[in-house]
Amino acid sequence: MIFLDSLMGIIGFVMGIQIGLFLGFLWFIHLQSRDSKKVILKAFNKLDSSSLVDFIHELPLWVMSPDYERVDWLNKFVEDLWPHLDKAGSKILKASAESAFAEYIGKYNIKSIGFRGFTLGTLPPKIHGLKAQESNENEIVMDLEFRWAGNSDIVVAIEVLCIKLEVQIVDIQMSAAMRIILKPFVPTFPCFCVAAVSLMEKPKIDFGIKVIGADIMSIPGLYHAVQEIVARQVAKLYLWPQSFDLAVLDET
């Protein structure tokens, strides 16, 4: 349950051209975002109250709040980079979970516990709105809405007494409001040492669990109980001001 647990130009005339093109592109994105927001809100106003209740939770945050920006360019970046982010993220999460697993070996008659397989899948997360917060001169603070409906496949092998079990965690879905703080600044690319990630509220988490190929989440009453326990445990670990700190550079 702890699984639950990332550019510069040239100088002179060339830099001026590149910066000009880049700013023009950002302005175009801004205009497109604003026009898209108007279209969505126009259609939104035509819904009756019953349809509104069902639809409102599916709207991205940039539609609901003027403070949040639409970031299609960032989602495209994440999508293209996802095969590599999957490997890097899986490695980090796997190492973090294995260190926690080590505390349970020898307890509760557990002889061994480890991963038989670990992949976040081929479907990347989506950022549904981003807002830069006011911060001090030595950090950048960003709030964002994060949604992920993935096809992950995580297999945990457990040996209890003489029984060997494989627990498969599949199809993780998550929705959360997050805060990312990049700090402190240093004169070495990428110019910050730590990316601190916190949750701003209890996340919504959904997933499937299979034991010996059987879906145990189909047991009446178990599904909602497990989802709630996992969401609470994740919130206890990473609810702001607590954070998951990812070291990027050595501060020294």
From TrEMBL:
Report a single Gene Ontology molecular function.
Answer: metal ion binding
Where is it localised? Membrane
Q: Membrane-spanning regions, if any?
A: 6-29
- Give the record's membrane topology: Single-pass membrane protein
Q: Which domain of life is it from?
A: Eukaryota
Question: Pfam families from the xrefs?
Answer: SMP_LBD
GO biological process assignments: lipid transport
PANTHER family listed in its UniProt record: EXTENDED SYNAPTOTAGMIN-RELATED, OS06G0685300 PROTEIN
Q: Which family does it belong to?
A: Belongs to the synaptotagmin family.
Q: What name appears for this protein in its UniProt entry? A: SMP-LTD domain-containing protein
